[in-house]
Amino acid sequence: MSIIAAYIVPHPPIILPEIGKGEERKVQKTIDSYKKIAAEIAESEPETIVITSPHATLYADYFHISPGRHAAGDFGQFGARGLVISADYDEEFVRELEKTAEENNIPAGTAGERDPRLDHGTMIPLRFIQKAWDPNKKPFKIVRIGLSGESLLTHYEFGKCIAEVAEKLNRRTVFVASGDLSHRLKEDGPYGFVKEGPIFDQQITNIMRSGNFSEIFNLDPHLCDQAGECGLRSFVIMAGALDGKQIEPELLSYEGTFGVGYAVASFKIKGIDENSRFNRYETEFQINKGEDPYVALAKASLTTYLKTGKYMKVPSGLPAEMLNRRAGTFVSLKKNGELRGCIGTILPVRSSVAEEIIHNAVSAGVEDPRFPPVTLNELDDLDFSVDVLSEPEDISSPDQLDVKRYGVIVSSGYRRGLLLPDLEGVDTVEEQIDIARRKAGIPRGEPIRLQRFEVVRHT
Prior knowledge:
Layout lengths: L2 E7 L7 H4 L7 H17 L3 E6 L9 E2 L5 E6 L4 E9 L2 H13 L4 E2 L10 H13 L8 E6 L5 H17 L4 E6 L17 H15 L10 H7 L4 H10 L3 E11 L6 E11 L20 H16 L11 H5 L4 E7 L2 E7 L8 H14 L15 E8 L3 E3 L10 E7 L2 E5 L9 H12 L8 E10 L1
Parallel strand pairs: 1-8, 2-7, 2-8, 3-6
Antiparallel strand pairs: 1-10, 4-5, 9-10, 11-12, 11-13, 13-17, 14-17, 15-16, 15-17
Helix pairs in contact: 2-4, 3-5, 5-8, 6-7, 9-11
């Protein structure tokens, strides 16, 4: 047994009568939908309910999974301190999820809990479910998960880990993705109005209605940011948990009465559908008309790594010389004309030029110590170039160099510095050698070994 159903729910405290004090009737459609899905969940008798919440512990580069056996919280910050919600955690599920995430290079675990109390993004769906639950039945346990600043595709991959654990443990599991839509739907709302708000809500509810979650990755990041949503990443984790499953989607309701979008949607599992597996995270490699294949491969390599944390495999469709030749390569990245990263290999260390480019593109993007790692949002602003190096040859004098034709390697003992040829702002051999010395940490006046090499530059 694995995930048996999934639901998207909002978490406005005002829908609880103890807090709304009559105002909740203005979002009666949301309440009715909530009660409907709560009854469905109770009837299905899940052993575990996984709840993702934007208000659980959040980190930029880590998914926090709540630890311990039990947790509780109240609605004191909303004027209802006497309303207490509690739940037991599924400790075995949590342990297995930590392990599975680690195996898939996804940063997730129970470390770093800031506040053990349940958050309202978790408590509100629990309130509805617990009210619908038959007290004579065995109680369910929960797994509470926070969101992160990682990419949407990493959230999706994490959702797949959740489904894998549910299946491995043979758990009847329900997934509840807690999150509101745009917070900027009305001038008199808590966050005002922006035109992107209703556009975002229309697009995301269309996705809920169709169940075509791959469309999430086509949403304009600027639109999402301007809309002020809080639930998108929660929904993406859920979508990952449903990867490869045949689902029956239903958008039960949508309301924006108070200037914040509230959507309730259900996704019933009808079976397995291998054709529905989402493969965009395995970046498809294609060479556009007029594009250099060396540059295309470098772009695809860094894109794949930023989305998945994994190196791409050598794709088909490359020229024979990229597959059959071995050579050192350098990959350079520029943003707005300024260097953003440059790393490479002087001599080949991999079995082909293609593999050399794949690994050096990643290194240039995330390992150049002069710059912070490239982010997914920057990719469209980057210009890539790839230099394929000839084998270095020893020279006895700087007179044998030409800054336009030859790159230079200076070395002294274990220290070695390289500078590519034909670089903007490097006009003389003396400058070229001096920069290479500085890169190697070799002071002026110290004897050095000189080597030169030629490159074929692809832009």
